[in-house]
Amino acid sequence: MAEARFHHYGVPTDKKSGNEFYIEAGKVWATSPDDNPFRIEFLRFDADSPMHEAVLNNTHAAFIVDDMDAALEGQNVIVPPFDATDTLQVAFIMDGDAVIEVMVER
After folding, report:
1. DSSP strand E in 15-70: where?
2. How far apart are CA 11 and CA 23, in angstroms?
3. Which of 35, 60, 84, 93 could tie 99 with a disulfide, CB 3.0–4.6 Å?
């Protein structure tokens, strides 16, 4: 796998936060890990979110990579790459019981 740099720790929640933004593709409200001293991103999913059950119900670690294809090669991909924002593409994999978010900044 390509080199990966830690970016944030994602935590599903049902509590609304004042600084959330909406990610249409995932039907999820998210906070920015840049606003948290521990790089935590809180995620509040809509009831009809298309995200995989493992992403909806578990915490995840997120990593920045330079090459999405290389990072996903040979991995158990549970959410294929999608554009989370205009400048960020993400995908989710399972590594054993761990949910991992793979991110490419453009």
Report:
1. 21-23, 28-30, 40-45, 60-65
2. 15
3. 60
Element (H, E) at 90: strand 88-95
Beta bridge partners of 45: 28
**Domain ranges, ordered by start, for the chain:** 4-105
Q: Which tokens hold the place of 22?
A: 């909406």
pLDDT value at residue 18 = 84
Round to whole Å and give the CA distance between 22 and 98: 25
For domain 4-105, which CATH number applies: 3.10.180.10, 3.50.50.60, 1.10.8.50, 3.30.230.10? 3.10.180.10
